[in-house]
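Dear Dr. L.,

I hope this message finds you well. Following up on our conversation about the binding site, I have prepared a predicted three-dimensional model of the protein together with zinc ion. For your records, I am including the exact sequence and ligand specification that went into the calculation, followed by the structure tokens. Please feel free to forward this to your student if that is useful.
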Amino acid sequence: MPIDPSPRSVSVLIPLALPAPYDYEVPAGLIAEEGAYVIVPLGAQQMLGVVWGPGTGEVEAKRLKPVLEVLDAPPMPAALRRFVDWIAAYTLNPRGSVLRLALRAPGALEPQRMRTAYRLADARPARMTPARLRVVETASDGFARTARELAEEAGVSDGVVRGLIEAAALLPVDLPTEAPFPEPDIGARGKALSPEQSAAASVLRARVEAGRFATLLLDGVTGSGKTEVYFEAVAEALARGKQALILLPEIALTSQFLDRFEARFGCKPAEWHSELSQRERRRVWRGVAEGRARVVVGARSALFLPFSDLGLIVVDEEHEAAFKQEEGVIYHARDMAVVRASLGDFPIVLSSATPSLETVVNAQLGRYERVVLPERHGAAELPQIAAIDMREEPPERGRWLSPRLVSEIAEALGRGEQAMLFLNRRGYAPLTLCRTCGHRIECPQCSSWLVEHRFRRELVCHHCGYTAPVPRACPSCGAEEALVACGPGVERIAEEISERFPEARIAILSSDNLRGPQSHEEVFRAIEAREIDIIVGTQIVAKGHHFPWLTLVGVVDADLGLENGDLRAAERTFQLLQQVAGRAGRAERRGRVFLQTYMPEHGVMRALVSGNRDQFLDREAAARERLGHPPFGRLVGVVLSSENAAQAQKFAREMARAAPQAEGVSVLGPAPAPLAMLRGRTRLRFLVKSARNINVQAYMQAWLSALKVPGSVRIAVDVDPYSFL
Ligand code: ADP
Ligand code: ZN
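The resulting structure of the complex is given below.
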């Protein structure tokens, strides 16, 4: 008797907020192997789902509904299915919600649309005309073309081509409508590596060759050649027939990066990010699943692509907060990438000039292997960093730049070099105040001030996007001409600069002024081409760009990031400013960096000026260990919100009473969140703290499952929180 290759019942996970897969019957004649994409009935609807395993038997066989259809696509690989389960358990999300992240390519499961093209048959038609002859000549190179293309290229009417098709002189072939993926050329010579770079590259290559799970920290100052080095690891993975994934923070996914990839491998990689068209998403998803796309360069959601044979992940700028997905399923893509590598049993490289404390501690404990690139490549030296004590050298009234910084800019411009001013604040002024009554203009839906954007002539809420025209009179007391803009944003710095240097060509780089990556690229090109003298920018300028003529960086307010007192404020400020400083002097000319600060004695400023990163990290680590903060202890943030403030508060008290008592776990709160109102919802926070060895997910599960959440209240659980707003 033939063996039935397909079980009679299967469990199918559906990409909805469902905790577990449901059982379905597999009708005779269908084969539904594990990982298969299927259509199943759910209530009155038909849903896409993925076969998660054999049926659980929870429902009587005769009451099972049937699988309706098995879609024509390679089954979801087991490693990805286990990854979905793992993330769901770790982040306390329904498995179906996590599965949804892996199905973000509409149309990818439908058969590819084909287009009909024609190639020349062996037989020539009996009747030849000069027009027909031209078509035959055009087609005689052997390439298939559509009827339209043939007519155009041969310079004949469509009718001539149609006649040849009818006479069977042209034969139809089906061609895919999508562009194929070029094969990266691993033989294409990379740059000749320095001895340090070669040593680092051979460690990476060896781990890829071993083909086992290992986490490597590639730790090297900006400009040391980390990219060149990890490209060698990618080449090794390709040589072994594996796919590779390079994860970048979305904003670092620039054409400059793709060009570098192309210079090394002779073609562009597949891209995966939020700006892709649906068509491109479909193409890449499918190409990855079928193993045709060999290298993907992508933002965090690329982790959920159905790689058929992934053999390496690189996380570049691994310290970046942008890897934390803060909405929906809240996860940290860097940490989850390590999990993905471990489930797939292959190596992962975390690359950074300013690695996160979490990663540094893991390296110190021997969990991660550290590979160091101590120097900038070639003649480039690290920039010199100095603090300007704003108490001693204050700006003039109503200005923001200290006289010393202004004269340094003048000198740089005099030498024909470029300067950059960094301020991590969009818009013109972060606060608008009434001089008469003291009223501050707030967002009507959030507990935050509206930020003035002078170019757009608007007040904008940076939390919810609410906008309003700048009023003429104070909305509270009605006084006219009494509103004043307080504090600077990049637009205001640009205004000061253009008054001081009227000849200088200035570019503002912030997410408001640049819509879409295209316009980013244009500005970056202009900078490279020295059509810009002074760049004023937010954190957009901090990442990965290489401007050979940029020698001076001024940080307008180095203390800004320290204001919010969260546990990583110092670490993040250090990383961001180090990264910004790294933009200066990346070629032969040495860079200089000035930090405007009111606290030059602060540990962050001292570490930046002295260049003693490791001492700074050691002190941070010691402080966190003392307080039981991550990575030495665990945190879970819980935010509950409601449009009904009283209900939110009432439920928060209930939640507090329901929190289980457990050794080693403490629950702080409820307290109003620092952003106490967002989009009209009142927000309250709990913070759960536990020792590292505690299964905090089990604790949370016990707590949350005991709750009866009112319909108006939403709960967001954030395991390993990075945002405490
Ligand atoms: P990182 O990623 O560490 O910041 P990059 O890989 O971007 O450093 O290298 C910095 C610059 O130095 C780039 O322009 C890169 O092309 C160049 N570079 C690095 N290594 C070499 C090398 N071995 N030969 C030539 N140029 C190199
Ligand atoms: Zn708002």
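In brief: The mean pLDDT is 92.

With kind regards,
A. P.
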